[in-house]
Design a protein that fits this description.
The structure holds 3 protein chains of 3 kinds. Chain A is of the alpha/beta class. Chain A contains 7 helices and 6 strands. Chain A has one domain: Pyruvate-ferredoxin oxidoreductase, PFOR, domain III (Pyruvate-ferredoxin Oxidoreductase, domain 3, 3-Layer(aba) Sandwich). Classes of the chains: A alpha/beta, B alpha/beta, C alpha/beta.
């Protein structure tokens, strides 16, 4: 078993936080993991992405050319990474910032791939903070793949937030649950 | 009858390799006297630098480490931070301390490293043959300023003691010379104050000693000795900063 | 007992390894991509009674290391390529003065300011001439967080054993990626140093640590002594070999590049391609003998494809080690362009199909 995920969005959307959390939760679940961030200028406002691998075997290359999974939070990321998504791969796309009609003429990009459109920004606002859209994405992702338990998610989140940001725990957990139930509803409706 | 004057204990009985009329030997001796008087030999580390005085260890019988050119204050920092119980001094020339090593020197002083830096200022690079240094006097001829130091080209003499005296973390800062007996005594007094400032953990201490370089000044030993008086017109002697004793 | 696993960046693994190895002082100057090392040390060292100081330049930092080492500290600094160049005068002195210390280079792209992406462009600088003169470092190249931790801890022991600087040569990928690190307490020996360190001349004559030898016979003797020391270091040679010797082609790579290559080799072997993998862990001394043995095994002439994130450096050491016993091919990616395992696979297949080898 091996999951390769690229998460991508604007700097400030919490891409690195989400990727790091995914890897941490994967590790606590007992898997081998790797987390490769892009850093430098992209940390300061541009697009930002990271690669996470979760596997039950040793991970050699932390770099992935054609990931099986994508989490796409903005439009530039859609065009940058959807072409790299493996055929048969799955992408969770933030439909609040990536409008479907803007991508329709690139239909051939998505022909053999599954795209799940979720209004992650709106869901995050409903959960109590627009900044928590990254956790909505993680909730949706784990809701689909069930890589780690709720308990482990909470452990990883608590560790990631640390003492200084412990007060953000609840809103992030709510966002995670929002994402999780949204994906469930979506899958059921398909 | 008591002996008023003796050979310092930690001065080795080697013949100085310095040129006739050079002042390094006098300063070496003064350092040894002060180390003896303060009973510091057991815990002293000296930093030899690059220049005529890199053979410091031929003459002074304490633990000595040879620092790269200009880096003595940084090396001393590493030593003192690891072993605050040791007494650490650097012995550098004007080229080493104030040209290539000015960054290291200034920052060690500004951090208030508990070390003592001794700068022998003879206004030239002695070992390499008398080239211009930051402290060369205006219009002084050197092997790389054959027509004299031109302020439009080489700028003005760098007054290190005056600069360091403005630093909050500097505990003691003075300039002296050793070209007459009174000044020799005064220099020893400054060295003792500087060493004590370190021993009392007060901060960085610095003594600049104007020194002759007869060979590179193209003078005989006696004229060079008198010429040091001329240096004092640009580099005034005295204590520039002295923190009061700790309560 | 289950040992503790934590998720850390490669550079954090290096810092934690240093602490596990008994490092008690750190001097450095900020540079991307290794700032997590000084940041972590600035928190951890004071807690343990150690010394942390951010110097005003890399030049000063390495000289502070020099001073601390001379009084017996387990001293360390870290930097990235441009900063390492600034330190190189100090490196030469440390070697000459026979002072132990650990130096970490988290390589980034060059020359000049280059970039902050991964690179292996400082291979030659690290293994051939860290400074002026004939000096050498013992150079260790980890390829995972666990290895970075263990090798850095061990580096302190090796530095004292040989009284020589040891360099950890890493790069921005391994430095910035996170993976699980299993925290162990490595057994690191502490060596007796009282017979050479400076500690004040109490009940003994003054001791001198110097590198100036104006007498040419004395200097030659000094250099020969150092050379013998480098030869002794050969017992420390480490490498990873995933090859039976019957393969047609062996990939040779180190550090992060070796991870990408290993993936490619696994994928191809699963598909039946006759491909092996060889990874030097000590870059100096270089595992020449092990490579030769591999080349000569099964009496079968093999191709050696050397893959590097530079314009081709380690390939020269491989060629010199094999001395004609294999066909050498170079796959060099200049700094900042990272190949994926699929790209390497394609290149390997291309090389397998070559009837004659490329000359490098």
């Amino acid at each position: 078993m091996r999951f390769e995920i690229i998460l991508s969005g604007f700097g400030g959307q919490g891409i690195l936080f989400a990727g790091n959390l995914l890897a941490l939760a994967g590790m606590y679940q007992g898997y081998q993991v790797s987390f490769l961030p892009v850093y430098g200028p992209e940390m300061r406002g541009g697009t930002c992405h990271c690669t996470v691998i979760i596997s039950d075997r040793e991970i050699s290359s932390p770099l992935v050319k054609e990931p099986g999974y994508l989490i796409v939070l903005n439009l530039p990321s859609f065009f940058k990474f959807i072409p790299r998504l493996r055929s048969g791969g799955l992408a969770i796309v933030n439909s609040d910032l990536v409008e479907r009609r803007e991508t329709e003429e690139f239909h051939n990009l998505t022909m053999d791939k599954e795209i799940l459109w979720l209004p992650l920004s709106s869901l995050a606002e409903q959960a109590g903070s627009p900044l928590a859209l990254n956790m909505c994405a993680i909730g949706a992702f784990n809701g689909l793949l069930k890589l780690f338990s709720e308990k482990i998610f909470k452990k990883a989140l608590r560790e990631m937030l640390g003492k200084d940001k412990a007060h953000l725990f609840e809103v992030n957990r709510r966002a995670y649950l929002k994402g999780k139930s949204a994906i469930k509803n979506l899958k059921e409706s398909i | 009858m008591s002996k008023p004057f003796d050979f310092p204990k930690c001065l080795k009985r080697n013949t100085f390799h310095y040129c006739p009329g050079c002042h390094h030997g006098i300063v070496h001796r003064l350092i040894c006297e002060v180390i003896d008087e303060l009973n510091l030999k057991d815990k002293t580390i000296g930093l030899a630098s690059i220049g005529c005085s890199c053979f410091l260890y031929f003459y002074i019988d304490v633990d000595i480490l040879e620092a790269p050119h200009g880096r003595a204050c940084s090396v001393a920092t590493g030593i003192k931070r690891m072993r605050p119980d040791l007494f650490v001094f650097t012995y550098q020339g004007d080229g080493d301390f104030s040209a290539i090593g000015l960054g290291d020197s200034i920052h060690a002083a500004s951090r208030g490293e508990k070390i003592t830096a001794i700068m022998i200022n003879n206004t030239v690079y002695g070992m390499t043959g008398g080239q211009v240094s930051p402290t060369t006097l205006l219009y002084q001829k050197t092997t790389t300023t054959p027509l004299g130091r031109d302020p439009q080209r080489e700028g003005y003499p760098l007054k290190v003691a005056e600069i360091l005296a403005t630093f909050e973390a500097v505990a003691f800062c003075a300039r002296s010379a050793v070209n007459n007996p009174k000044r020799v005594k005064e220099t020893k007094n400054y060295l003792k104050k500087a060493f004590k400032a370190q021993l009392e953990n007060k901060g960085f201490s610095y003594v600049e000693i104007l020194s002759s370089c007869p060979v590179n000044w193209r003078m005989d030993a006696v004229s060079a000795n008198y010429h040091v008086d001329k240096l004092t017109e640009v580099y005034p002697l005295g204590i520039f900063k002295e923190l009061p004793p700790k309560k | 007992m289950k040992s503790k696993r934590i998720l850390v960046k490669g550079v954090e693994a290096i810092a934690l390894g240093a602490l596990a190895g008994g490092c008690n002082c750190y001097f450095g100057y900020p540079i991307t991509p290794q700032n997590e090392i000084p940041e972590l040390m600035s928190v951890e060292l004071p807690k343990r009674g150690g010394v942390f100081l951010q110097a005003e330049s890399e030049t000063s930092a390495i000289n502070m290391v020099l001073g601390a080492s001379a009084v017996g500290a387990r001293a360390m600094t870290s930097s990235s390529s441009p900063g390492i160049s600034l330190m190189s005068e100090g490196f030469s002195y440390l070697i000459a003065l026979e002072l132990p210390c650990v130096i970490v280079n988290v390589m980034r792209g060059g020359p000049g300011l280059g970039g902050i992406e991964a690179s292996q462009g400082d291979y030659f600088q690290a293994v051939k001439a860290p400074g002026h003169g004939d000096g050498k470092f013992l150079v260790l190249a980890p390829y995972s967080c666990n290895e970075a931790y263990e090798l850095t801890a061990k580096a302190f022991e090796l530095a004292e054993k040989y009284r020589n600087p040891v360099m950890i040569l890493s790069d921005a990928i391994l430095g910035q990626m996170k993976e699980p690190l299993t925290l162990k307490s490595p057994k690191i020996k502490t060596l007796e140093k009282d017979d050479w360190i400076l500690s004040g001349a109490k009940d003994r004559p003054g001791r001198v640590i110097k590198s100036l030898f104006l007498d040419s016979a004395e200097l030659a003797e000094r250099n020969l002594k150092l050379k013998q020391k480098y030869q002794k270091m050969e017992v420390e040679i480490k490498f990873e070999r995933l090859a039976e010797g019957s393969e047609e082609l062996i990939i040779v790579a180190f550090g992060s590049m070796a991870r990408i290559c290993k993936e490619a080799v696994f994928n191809l072997r699963a598909r039946g391609y006759p491909v092996g993998f060889f990874r030097p862990i000590t870059l100096f001394p270089f595992p020449r003998k092990a490579l030769c043995e591999l080349a000569e095994s099964h009496q079968k002439r093999k191709k050696f494809l050397v893959v590097e994130l530079n314009c081709g450096q380690m390939v020269e050491d491989v060629a010199s080690a094999l001395c004609g016993k294999g066909d050498i091919l170079s796959l060099a990616y200049p700094p900042s362009v990272l190949p994926f395992p699929e790209d390497i696979e394609r290149e390997i297949i291309k090389c397998l199909n070559l009837s004659t080898s490329l000359n490098v």
